[in-house]
Amino acid sequence: MTGAAARSGISFALLLPLLLAAQPVATDSYLPALPAIAQDLGSASASLTVFVLAFGFGQLPCGPLSDRFGRRPVLLTGLAIYALAALGCAVAPSIPMLVACRALQGFSMAAILVCARAAVRDLYPAHEGPHVMARGLTGLGVVALIAPVLGAYAVQATGWRWVLGGMAVYALVLWALCLRGFAETRVRSSDPSAPKGSVREVFASQSFRAWASVSAVTYGGLFCFLLFSPMVYISFLGLSPGWYGWIPAGGSLVYIFSTTMCRRLLTRHGAVRTVQMGSLLSLAGPLVQALGCWMLPMSAWPLLLGHAIYCVGHGIHQPCGQAGAVGELPHLAGRAVSWSGFAMMAVAFVVGQIAASFVNPQFSNGAWPMVVPMALAGVTLVLIAYLWLPRLQLSHSRKETP
């Protein structure tokens, strides 16, 4: 770890999960508030869609800005805007203002996550990155487990506006922690002839393309679960909303377990072998679901079991993919992180839109629109893990051999 980390008054290992958790705080705690918002102001679905789009596109400028001006100023600015946007949402008198403030919040969240992930590469060598990201994502999983429960209780006890006020408080506390404890991690070269780098260099990196593909594909499959699972479990299979709420919570528990397990696998087997084992789980889960759709179409149990297996693979792929995408680009960590994050959102959006075209009010296709994209993601991950990553590893080995 660099000297910047040593000067930090607060351990980066503590700050990282708190920074990454800004995403579930902004999304998972918001979901229970949607019905109450719709009752007071009108349909609130646009506020969620715009938030996700702003988060996806916001990563593109935030990466270069953090490479140019440093992680610390971009991070502190993002946290401040996140808090102000949440307060704006809390006092919004209409849906247009709510949507505008949520868009601003999504953009600011992009700055927070880009800087947090880029700082991992700044502070740690490439081979330690997956371990550090796994620890951070374990903390994110804990918050994702708690956030919807707290959001639901807050809506019931105090109203939906206090949920958004709580987001502002979270961001302000985190801003204060980072102001005191987050030293600049971007190491600027004193050599004027050092290469500045560009987006073209990011995409020229085969390592970036391979590992970013792992993150994007696994998230694309999970996004289809998030998008279609309410329809499948509530509208098609007839589960109550209360029972359904335990399904994503269970997925968060599995995710916490799998990111913890990922660290042990990395120590024993290395990144490539770890992702190979994870890819088999990512394929096995949807295959269990597909077997259930074929033989027990009205049973939730095969879908639940398959989802749990897929989540184990997802918890292995994300730390490896996110850290691996910036492994050989330390001087372009911000740009690499931003394009990797954008790829995740873009793949999820495109796959979700295609799958949505197979959903109709009669649910004639049952759970297949949710299961098929997850199965395709599993197949793609197996191909990447067993065909692309070993070739990449062999190429690096040859370069390191004198």
Largest sheet: none
Question: What is the helix tally?
Answer: 16
DSSP helix fraction: over 70%
The shape, in one word, is globular
Overall number of strands:
0
Question: How confident overall, as mean pLDDT?
Answer: 88
CATH class of the largest domain: Mainly Alpha
Computed over alpha carbons, the radius of gyration is: 21 Å
What does this protein structure show overall?
The chain has 16 helices and no strands. With 402 residues, it is mostly helical. The chain has 2 domains: 9-181, MFS general substrate transporter like domains (Growth Hormone, Chain: A); 199-397, MFS general substrate transporter like domains (Growth Hormone, Chain: A, Up-down Bundle), CATH 1.20.1250.20. Helices cover 81% and strands 0% of the residues. The chain starts with a helix and ends with a helix. The protein has helices at residues 3-7, 12-20, 22-27, 34-41, 45-69, 71-90, 95-123, 129-158, 160-181, 199-204, 206-236, 241-244, 246-295, 301-324, 333-356, 368-400.
Draw up the topology in text.
Blueprint (H helix, E strand, L loop, with lengths): L2 H5 L4 H9 L1 H6 L6 H8 L3 H25 L1 H20 L4 H29 L5 H30 L1 H22 L17 H6 L1 H31 L4 H4 L1 H50 L5 H24 L8 H24 L11 H33 L2
Helix pairs in contact: 2-8, 2-9, 5-6, 5-7, 5-15, 6-7, 6-9, 7-15, 8-9, 8-13, 8-14, 11-14, 11-15, 11-16, 13-14, 13-16, 15-16
Name the features:
402 residues, mainly alpha, Growth Hormone, Chain: A, 2 domains
Quick recap of the structure?
The protein is mostly helical and 402 residues long. The N terminus is likely disordered.
